[in-house]
């Protein structure tokens, strides 16, 4: 099911979609060497194959760790004869100096278009000499929608997929296959193929792929709750509400369910939202530590990721809470939705162009840093809504207590009648 052109690539539309960088390179026939980095099974090899298929250039695959300089020389000789070869070099972070020195002149003259693939951060792991001659593009775990699309294609394709087999994939088995692989399409297709080819037809002549079969073939058990279509979102909802409600044990329980399902992307997304929505200004250091823990978890992956995740879940659950930030921005957005908010005051308008002064733009603006304590009373909101208040501080943490005192002090000074 390897894509033969860019249109067949599943996911990574920020790179290969219409109007995006790799799509434009192929369309303009102006390919440059690149490094694709991201988790396994997310389409690095597929993108390289699709580029080759779309451009009709010869396509070769080597591994920087296991293939020798002689293998590179063979590719270079082919490039001299045919004009251009696209070389996918897997594990490019393992490229030693001898191979690197051999490759560099071929990258310079354009005979070899290098597409390096790595799961390591190229800014940290790849030699600057190679890095400076390539464009670096991140690839991301595929979404459930992406995985679902690829499964549909594999089940329907009679030439390269499983379309000739009388398969019946149960809905709950399909959901498990999509979720258990954690954005890794290769694992999903391998599991589906193994299940199809190792299951005997039933009396009706069809091969029924059930939840237990898929669980066995992808080696991930579905949680009991996951057999219900809404259960995945119920677990995530319970996870956030338990942290919001400061119940550490419940929060850890739902975290464990998500970890057991291998759903690191959902954990990372939800914890990021929780940190800012539910803890927010009551404890900004905890929010920052949560983001750091999430980044660490994504970098090291499961199962070790459970350690920083557990630490941050415990801290967030026990932290003071405040949702004043989300309430404030939602109140401001509600005012915008009403459509009646008036003109920006002239003194706040952009004055960095000729003629602005004639329009009154920027005139009478008072630069706060020219005044004591870097503050001066001045109207910033439009006249129609000049008395609007969106932020309502909460006293649940020392940081926001201090913000509240400052907010009320400034508001009082701002609205004091002029003498």
Description:
Keywords: ATP-binding, Nucleotide-binding. Belongs to the AAA ATPase family. RarA/MGS1/WRNIP1 subfamily. This is Replication-associated recombination protein A. Pfam families: AAA (PF00004), AAA_assoc_2 (PF16193), MgsA_C (PF12002). The protein has about 425 residues and is α/β, with parallel strands linked by helices. It has four domains: about 5-140, Rossmann fold, CATH 3.40.50.300; about 145-220, Orthogonal Bundle (Helicase, Ruva Protein, domain 3); about 225-320, Up-down Bundle (Zinc Finger, Delta Prime, domain 3); about 340-415, DNA polymerase III clamp loader subunits, C-terminal domain (post-AAA+ oligomerization domain-like). It has 18 helices and seven strands. The strands form two sheets. A five-stranded parallel β-sheet has the order 2-3-4-1-5, sandwiched between helices. A two-stranded parallel sheet has the order 6-7. Helix 5 links the parallel strand 3 (about 85-90) and strand 4. Helix 10 (about 185-200) crosses helix 11 and helix 15 (about 285-300) runs antiparallel to helix 16 (about 305-320). About 30% of the residues are buried. Mean pLDDT is about 90; it is low at about 225-230.
Portion in strands: 5-15%
**Low-confidence sequence ranges:** 223-229
The whole-number mean of residue pLDDT values reads 89
Estimated helix fraction: 40-55%
The whole-angstrom Rg is 28 Å
Shape: globular
How many domain units?
Answer: 4
Sheet of most strands: 5 strands, parallel
CATH homologous superfamily descriptor of the largest domain: P-loop containing nucleotide triphosphate hydrolases
The count of helical stretches stands at 18
Strand order of the largest sheet: 2-3-4-1-5
Terminal residue distance = 77 Å
In CATH, the architecture of the largest domain is 3-Layer(aba) Sandwich
Number of strands: 7
The helix-and-strand class reads alpha/beta
According to CATH, what is the topology of the largest domain? Answer: Rossmann fold
Regarding CATH, which class of the largest domain? Answer: Alpha Beta
How would you spell out the order of helices and strands? HHEHEHEHEHHEHEHHEHHHHHHHH
User: Assembly type of the shown chains?
Assistant: single chain
